[in-house]
Amino acid sequence: MRKNLSIILLCCFGLVLIASATTATTDFKPVFNPKMKIEQTLHPIKIDGSLDDAGWRSASRTDMFVERYPGDMIEPDVKTEAYVTYDDDHLYVAFFCHDDPDAIRATMCQRDQFGSDDAVVLLIDTYGDASWAYEFFVNPYGVQKDRLWSSVGGEDAGFDLIWQSAAQITDSGYQVEIAVPFASMRFPNQDVQSWKIDFWRNRPRESFKQYSWAAYDRNEQCWVCQWGTVEGIANVQPGRGLEIMPALVASQHSGLADYRDPQSHFANHKGDGELSLGAKYSVSSDVTIEAALNPDFSQIEADAAQIDVNTTIALLFPERRPFFQEGSDIFRTLFNSFYTRTVYDPSLAVKLTARMDKTSIGFFSAIDENSPYMIPLDEASIVVNTGQSMVNVLRASHRVGDNSQVGLMVSDRRFEDDGSGTIFAIDGDIRLSRNYSIDGQFLMSHTQEANDPGATDGLQGYTLDNGSKTLVFDGESFYGGAFIARFKRDARHWNFALDYSQVDPTYRTQTGYDPWVNYRNLTLSSWYEIRPEKTIFQSVTPSAYVHAKWDYDGIRKANESGFNIDAQTRVAQTSFNIGFNRSDAVWSGVDFDHLWSANIGVYGRPSSMLGLSFNGRKGVGIARFDGAKGNETGLYASLNVKPIDRLTIEPTFNYLRSTDTKTGEELFSQYIARARVSLQANRELSLRLVLQYNDGRKTWNIDPLITYRISPFSVFYLGSTYDYREYDRFTSSGTPYGSQWDLNSRRFFMKLQYLFQT
User: Fold this and answer.
1) CA nearest 353: which of 257, 434, 284, 263?
2) Which end of the chain has the least Cβ crowding within 10 Å, N or C?
3) E strands, 471-609, in order
4) For 411-467, what is the HEC assignment?
5) Whether 224 and 324 share a structural domain
6) By the 8 A CB rule, do 646 and 108 touch?
7) Are residues 1 and 150 in the same domain?
8) How many CB atoms lie within 10 A of CB 205?
9) pLDDT at 300 over 80
């Protein structure tokens, strides 16, 4: 083992030496914080990908782009031009990207689903305070992708706006037109606007390159602060008015009366249909109210299965439901204090979001018909269904000083059986200098259990907080607390983060995701980034960390340390990482020492037709359900294959196995094989098929879907799900004689939704 570790360290040291080469500078002059004055166009602009409309003749133009990645503000390989103008209703932006048309990478797909294409990006911070911003992406086929960025939570991939885009590939590159309605955006209610804006161009070839209008100082941690400024937008009105979104949802379900017994009757239930109604009213540019009656909060595509064979806590899944998109950045905190998927089956939901000068406010309220209740423990979490509940969440934040902010959150969940869960939290993100910042959050919780022991059958006899509280619902009332603080350095080369967090044994939240309690964590991590100019390596980043964990009795629960090398190359967009960590831990009162893990990952995009990802792991870890030490082997592999520009095939394979270090007996094993096939006929019509096999649960899932999408919110879905399960077979005397696959459940569904705007 020591010999292998020495070889790895020697290789890493060699990479750093190679990467330390630098290049000479040129006479090219990057422009920091550029400015542009724009004027209103007097002629119409048609968004069709052609730039010959008369409205573009008076547009402001720039071709002063720099290579911001991987180069450090150097002159780009190719020329890019950006044009900006506006009328009473829209902001118009056009790009002309000079290039070899045969080398351009583009995918015809649904909006939001391209990832490795050529693309242009429009970034807008309408309030200019670097707290949140819009991101608009368009590929050479005109396909859209949008994001909402916030200083607390980063990018929200589920965010959607209604805007227009079109593109054309030409003999000398490709060109893009974008029209963003002022009614879709939020901005200050003043006569003349001054917005922070940047224009980017993504150009993936052997290396992924990114060009920008604004130059960036890598020693400045606030990247939004460094955007350019566009001035001159006058007498325009931000989003106001009423939006109505009715939807019809119909489904028919069939399944075994007892899913554990394939001999049970396979029942075909009656079809079921229901109407839902959503509405959004923009009181002003600052205040928006949304409401949904009998909302369909279901997801069209099921979550990808996760390896859970050695997991003792509830899994965390991303939020994809449209209702939570507006103002999603407002509710984000360091602790996931409002995990929206805890609102599982609402019959009525209301939300208010407001942005007033430097203050943001969000309020959410819903009646949830089936409420998940999470009981967090030291080493596990338990989820039970507690029926109907009323959920209320209030969040407010205020910008102070130089790109700093403070905030608070209050959430409350009242269950129909008189139980409740309430938290109060305050948080802050304070920028100390260009490179240093500190952020943190403090929370207090109050739990009032229902007096319903039957809802927690099987938990009798289990206690927490040294036996002073039981886990059953017996009407107990208790308080708890949680705290997190981070001190960070973010600079061009050397970076670090010092992180401390703690959660009391009696802390509990029913609107957030906090699956563990009774711990104190201290972590120090540091990394050094090198970006050479003329070697095979685009960047090399060695990193190291140390971590310690205690419980509230002062018992050391874990010691861990490790190092990692991340390297990006200039060949086929290939990157790789090599890592090693060692730890000692206590699990269920048993000491486990000399635990370790070594991993290697390789990722690449050799062409527009093929992308690949591989990660392998080997080590010694804890088999938590067996209380034993096991030799672990993990593997994850995926491909992204495009035989043609509108057909995408994405197979993935995820595997984990552990064998006892003493006996060699298998402790656990699970693999998940999944394939997603998408065919895009045009920008509106698509067909998708998901095939998934879960070895741990012995299930097959087959999910076909047809989608016709006019806009993010006007859409028609028609699909079905087929779930197969492997059952053991027995003779009449009860002797097993093999297994057989049977259809466990089947569902047909349809959804028609349309957005009306006034």
Assistant:
1) 284
2) C
3) 477-489, 494-503, 519-528, 537-550, 556-569, 575-587, 590-607
4) EEEEECCCCEEEEEEEEEEEECCCCEEEEEEEEEEEEECCECHHHHCCCCCCEECCC
5) no
6) yes
7) no
8) 19
9) no
How far from the centroid of its chain's Cα atoms is residue 66's Cα?
Answer: 29
Among the three residues 516, 532, 551, which one is the final residue of a domain in this structure? 516
Q: 128 is in which domain, residue-wise?
A: 31-234
DSSP assignment of 586-620, as one string?
Answer: EETTEEEEEEEEEEEEEEEEEETTEEEEEEEEEEE
369 assigned to some structural domain:
yes
Instruction: Give me the numbers of helices (H) and strands (E) for the chain, helices first please.
Output: 1, 44
What is the pTM (predicted TM-score) of this model? Answer: 0.83
Helix (H, G, I), strand (E, B) or coil at 111: coil
Tell me the residue type at 577.
N
Tell me, yes or no, whether 734 lies in a domain. Answer: no
Q: Do 23 and 152 reside in the same domain of the chain?
A: no
> Among 662, 695, 728, which residue terminates a domain?
695
Q: Residue 68's Cα: distance from chain center in Å?
A: 24
pLDDT in tens, 47-96: 999 999 999 999 999 999 999 999 899 999 999 999 999 999 999 999 99
Among 721, 717, 714, 723, residue whose Cα is nearest residue 741: 723
- Residue 442: inside a domain: yes
Q: Are 6 and 35 part of one and the same domain?
A: no
Tokens at 207, concatenated = 């290396």
Question: How do 80-86 and 60-62 pair as beta strands?
Answer: antiparallel
More confident residue, 267 or 21: 267
Contact indicator for 563, 580 with CB cutoff of 8 Å: yes
Q: How many CB atoms lie within 10 A of CB 738?
A: 8
Tokens of 663: 């006996």
Place of tokens 């030799």: 631
* DSSP letter assigned to residue 172: T
pLDDT in tens, 194-248: 999 999 999 999 999 999 999 999 988 899 999 999 999 999 887 667 889 898 9
- Reduced DSSP (H G I as helix, E B as strand, rest coil) percent helix, strand, coil of the chain, to 5: 5, 55, 35
Extract the tokens encoding 278. 């959503």
Residue pair 354/360 in contact (Cβ under 8 Å)? The answer is yes
Same domain, 445 and 575: no
Residue 649, pLDDT above cutoff 90: yes
Sign of the C-alpha dihedral computed for residues 11, 16, 19 and 22 taken in this order? negative
Count structural domains, the chain: 3
Is 346 in the same domain as 471?
yes
Compute how many other C-beta atoms are within 10 angstroms of the C-beta atom of residue 370.
Answer: 12
Residues 396/354, Cβ–Cβ less than 8 Å: no
Please give the Cα distance from 523 to 560 (Å, whole number).
9
* Residues 381, 317 share a domain: yes
Q: For residue 257, what are the CA distances in angstroms to 260, 266, 671, 743, 744?
A: 9, 6, 28, 12, 9
For residues 378 and 409, membership in a common domain is answered with: yes
Q: Which two tokens stand for residue 612?
A: 């690949």
Give the whole-angstrom CA distance, residue 94 versus residue 83.
5
- Beta partners for 566? 541, 577
CATH of the domain at 228: 2.60.40.1190
- The answer to whether residues 47 and 55 touch, using CB atoms and an 8 Å cutoff, is no
